[in-house]
Design goal:
- The protein is mostly helical.
- The protein has four domains: 118 residues; 76 residues, Ribosomal Protein S8, Chain: A, domain 1; 119 residues, Hypothetical protein af1432, CATH 1.10.3210.10; 75 residues, Cation efflux protein, cytoplasmic domain (Alpha-Beta Plaits, 2-Layer Sandwich), CATH 3.30.70.1350.
- It has a three-stranded antiparallel β-sheet with strand order 1-3-2, covered by helices on one side.
- A hairpin with a 6-residue loop joins strand 2 and strand 3.
């Protein structure tokens, strides 16, 4: 507004020499501006003073609050320490009071003991006086007796001792004899009772292993497929599995014959798969048999695991579990080894429990006692010692290892479980009909027959057939020609005649098959 007025006045001043008037107004404006500036500065100073005063008061209040807080904390801490000191002083006073009381009680007991000691001294003196009097009377009487008997005191003592000793020895001998007789009778009765109770409480089936398995079929039409054109399928199956397939007039059944239970099982499962699949030819047969051999190993492990679960045995090494499963496909004197080992385990556990021993260790040792018989590699060691070495290798308890190795007396027994396992092995094997020694010797002869042929160069596989009356030998066609095959058959037959004993005759058949395989890509 002042600027507008200034402009108007300037305009007016231009009309009549108003330059002086314009200068007046300019001066007046500067004076007002200066006054306004002073007022603003004063106002700002007052505000700054008020702000500083407020800040000062706030800081003073804050400092006072902090001081009061610290003072309160210090007072509280001092009160706590003071209370602790007072408490400790009270405890010290109580302890001092208790110690004083105990000291007074000890002084009273000491006084009582001194009094009792004086009384005992008086009583001992009186006893000593009486003892001296008694000794004097005794010596007098002994002197009188020596005069009457004509013996000295030492001589009479020796005679009395001799008489008493003889009498004691006579009575002791009589009592010892009675005790021994009674112990023998009791021990015999108790042992018989334990064995009978153990056998009665163990109900294990006894399946005598044989050399024949029966494969059931739905229709006799399938027999033709199994035989194949000119018998090629059945020959391929026998060559792959090492068993004899007997297809006769038996309705809805095919006989699988072989001394090795594993081979028979492989043949049975392979036949089952081939019949279900419907494709039966030599190439398919070899493929199915190869798969079945892998599956049978898995089944062996499952059998071992199931056996351990049934018997309540835990923590067994996987290799030992596999060996336990292999027991299912082995026999000893016609007795199935797995059934035999299960029975020995149960018998040993029951007998050990009756005798107050560790039943779990006994059961474990009973199950593993024959694992040396199923070790796949050839060993010169007895099966009991081999089984002990296997158990040691897989960190079994030393008592179990000793029981395995000592159950046929190959090593010394060092634990109570060892004779238990030996006794239970004898119990299981001696049951009527449990074993047949003829079967075991028969299987041993067939294995020796196969091993004899396998020792010749160029022989891939060898199977004893027809209860050992025929030996079928598969050779490598690349290394053995037709002329060598004939010579090999003759050499093997001559070696059998020289080294083995057998009834009748053995037919040696060498099979050389030439295969040419190519692929169209």
């Amino acid at each position: 507004m002042a600027d507008v007025l200034f402009i108007i006045l300037a305009a007016l001043a231009g009309l009549g020499g108003g330059a002086a008037l314009a200068g007046f107004f300019i001066k007046n404006k500067n004076a007002k501006l200066e006054e306004e500036t002073r007022e603003k500065v004063k106002s700002m100073l007052r505000e700054a003073e008020l702000t500083a005063e407020t800040i000062k008061k706030d800081k003073i209040l804050e400092a006072k609050e902090k001081y009061l807080k610290l003072k309160s904390e210090f007072d509280e801490e001092m009160n706590n320490k003071k209370n602790i000191i007072i408490t400790n002083e009270n405890k010290v006073k109580q302890l001092q009071s208790q110690v004083s009381k105990e000291q007074e009680a000890l002084k009273r007991k000491e006084a009582e003991l001194d009094s009792k000691k004086e009384n005992l001294s008086a009583q001992l003196h009186a006893v000593q006086v009486k003892k001296d009097e008694l000794d004097r009377i005794t010596n007098q009487r002994i002197a009188d007796l020596e005069k009457v008997a004509g013996l000295t005191r030492e001589e009479a003592k020796e005679q009395i001792i001799t008489m008493l000793t003889e009498e004691a020895q006579s009575k002791a001998s009589s009592q010892i004899k009675d005790i021994l007789d009674e112990a023998k009778i009791t021990a015999t009765k108790q042992a018989k009772k334990i064995v009978l109770d153990t056998i009665q409480r163990t109900a294990t089936e006894h399946a005598v292993e044989n050399c024949v398995s029966v494969f059931n079929i739905e229709s006799d039409d399938i027999k033709g497929k199994i035989i194949g054109r000119e018998g090629r399928n059945i020959r391929a199956l026998e060559a792959a599995t090492g068993v004899e397939i007997v297809v006769d007039d038996t309705p809805e059944a095919i006989i699988i014959s072989g001394f090795d239970p594993v081979r028979r099982e492989i043949a049975r499962l392979s036949l089952h798969r081939l019949v279900q699949d419907g494709r039966i030819h030599p190439a398919r047969i070899e493929e199915v048999v190869a798969k079945t051999e892998k599956n049978i190993e898995e089944e062996i492990v499952e059998i071992g695991e199931r056996t351990c679960i049934d018997l309540g045995i835990h923590g067994l090494h996987p290799e030992l579990i596999r060996l336990v499963g292999r027991l299912r496909f082995r026999s000893s004197y016609g007795q199935n080894l797995l059934q035999h080992s299960r029975e020995v385990a149960k018998l040993a556990a029951t007998m050990a429990a009756e005798m107050g021993l560790n039943a779990k260790l006994a059961k474990r040792a009973g199950l593993l006692h024959d694992i040396g018989k199923v070790w796949p590699e050839e060993q010169e060691l007895p099966h009991a010692v081999l089984g002990m070495e296997l158990a040691k290798r897989y960190k079994e308890n030393p008592e179990i290892c000793n029981a395995i190795g000592a159950h046929h007396d190959e090593i010394e027994m060092t634990s109570m479980i060892s004779p238990i396992v030996q006794a239970c092995d004898a119990i299981s094997g001696s049951r009527p009909g449990a074993r047949r020694e003829i079967m075991d010797s028969y299987i041993k002869r067939l294995k020796e027959l196969e091993e004899l042929a396998l020792a010749f160069d160029g022989v891939n596989k060898c199977f004893a057939m027809q209860a050992g009356r025929e030996l079928r030998i598969l050779v490598d066609a690349d290394n053995v020609d037709d002329q060598t095959a004939g010579k090999l058959s003759f050499d093997i037959s001559q070696k059998i005649e020289k080294e083995m004993q057998y009834p009748g005759q053995i037919k040696v058949t060498v099979i050389r098959e030439m295969r040419a395989v190519n692929y169209a890509r």
